From TrEMBL:
<protein>
    <submittedName>
        <fullName>VOC family protein</fullName>
    </submittedName>
</protein>
<feature type="domain" description="VOC">
    <location>
        <begin position="6"/>
        <end position="132"/>
    </location>
</feature>
<dbReference type="InterPro" id="IPR029068">
    <property type="entry name" value="Glyas_Bleomycin-R_OHBP_Dase"/>
</dbReference>
<dbReference type="InterPro" id="IPR037523">
    <property type="entry name" value="VOC_core"/>
</dbReference>
<dbReference type="Pfam" id="PF00903">
    <property type="entry name" value="Glyoxalase"/>
</dbReference>
<dbReference type="InterPro" id="IPR004360">
    <property type="entry name" value="Glyas_Fos-R_dOase_dom"/>
</dbReference>
Amino acid sequence: MSTNLRPFHLAFPVHDLDAARIFYGGLMGCEEGRSSSHWIDFNLYGHQIVTHLDESRASAKMTNPVDGGDVPVPHFGVVLTIGEWDKLAERLNTAGIDFVIPPTIRFKGQTGEQATMFFTDPSGNALEFKAFADDSQIFAKD
């Protein structure tokens, strides 16, 4: 894995910009960048995410089975360090987030073992944050 990764950019719809600002800026601790009455840029662990207003936004309900859990699709997130992941899990638990899949270890004792958690934003966009004790496992194959 390259140590010179560039930030990714992801734009996605939300039904309420004020709710997005509270969720991403407040709860998730993302620094807010530029904004307008129709979109807001946020810094998500060094990556640029942009919430675009779509008042008719309906959340997707598709899932796929992964290691005994029903993983929401689509979803996005960041691979954190274990320390960052622990802090985020604690902050979300303290805030009373209703997890889709609560903080857990997936693929325990197998290739790709990872700490993971899934939750949704106020518009129903699914997020996954994960961490590996050994980053060489991020793209490891059986």
